[in-house]
Amino acid sequence: MTLRLGVNIDHVATVRNARGGLLPDPVRAAKLAIVAGADGITAHLREDRRHIRDEDIARLKAEIDKPLNFEMAATSEMVGIALKTKPHACCLVPEKRSERTTEGGLDAAGQQTALKSTVHALKHAGIRVSLFIAAQPAQIEAAAALGADIVEIHTGAWCDALAEGRTAQASAEWKQIVAGAALASGLGLEVHAGHGLDYASAEEIAALPQIVELNIGHFLIGESIFEGLPETVTFMRAAMARGRATIK
Ligand code: PXP
Q: Does the pLDDT at position 224 exceed 80?
């Protein structure tokens, strides 16, 4: 049972954009991460282009030899870019200009009609479609009804509760993730997870057999300032392998 690691390189672009110019280059980070053991690269082209830019997406598609997971809002502009780029997968995320990061999951249940045409257009072009949602039954069922291939479970609330020592909430969030992964897998969806993961939480969630991919960015890029990107990816893979090894 393999567990893939998708490395999100958005925050290499954040550092580049803080100064202007071309450095550090997120595509170089993607290549290094792949050499160190990443199974794929994730990048989020936000409407305001605050980190990844259009040319980064084009270069990632052209220059990396592992799957590109293109995170995007379900807008006609982003669908157009996705259809031109043809990434391996598109992960549809909610997007608000005012947020610092993707704070909540997509409301697949409440936006079924609006999402239908986006999911259809991407799938029709041979792109795998993932919906970034909270592990709630209504959202998971809506993702299945929409014909998504994948759900990516938003682990942010669980990770925040763990980091802040809110143990009762962490345990409630964890139960929802466990049940959500089982429900999604039972409905035939491929199950991914991401947001806020670090070594400890990645090790824990790696023990859920239904989850086949983790997408991790902020922690890896931050930690690589101290340890180096290849080392950080290697440590993360080891944490994931330890968690996976507990599955009987
Ligand atoms: N998955 C999705 C869909 C995301 O939007 C993000 C954040 O961009 C991540 C995973 C990675 O989250 P983090 O940067 O906190 O590891």
A: yes
Which residues contact ligand 1 via a Cβ below 6 A? 8, 10, 44, 71, 91, 93, 101-102, 132, 152, 194-197, 215-219
Phi, psi (rounded to 5 degrees) for 43: -145, 140
Q: What percent of the chain has pLDDT over 70?
A: 98
* Active site residue ranges: 44, 71, 195
17-20-24-26 Cα dihedral, nearest 10 degrees:
50
What does the domain layout of the chain look like in residue ranges? 4-244
Over 80: is that where the pLDDT of 244 sits? Answer: yes
CA distance 247 to 135: 21
Calculate what percentage of the chain has a pLDDT beyond 90.
95
Q: Domain 4-244, what fold?
A: TIM Barrel (3.20.20)
User: Is the pTM for the entire model greater than 0.90?
Assistant: yes
Radius of gyration of the chain (CA): 17
What is the greatest pairwise CA distance in the chain? 50
Please, is 176 exposed, middle or buried when counting C-beta atoms within 10 Å of its C-beta (0-12, 13-18, 19+)? middle
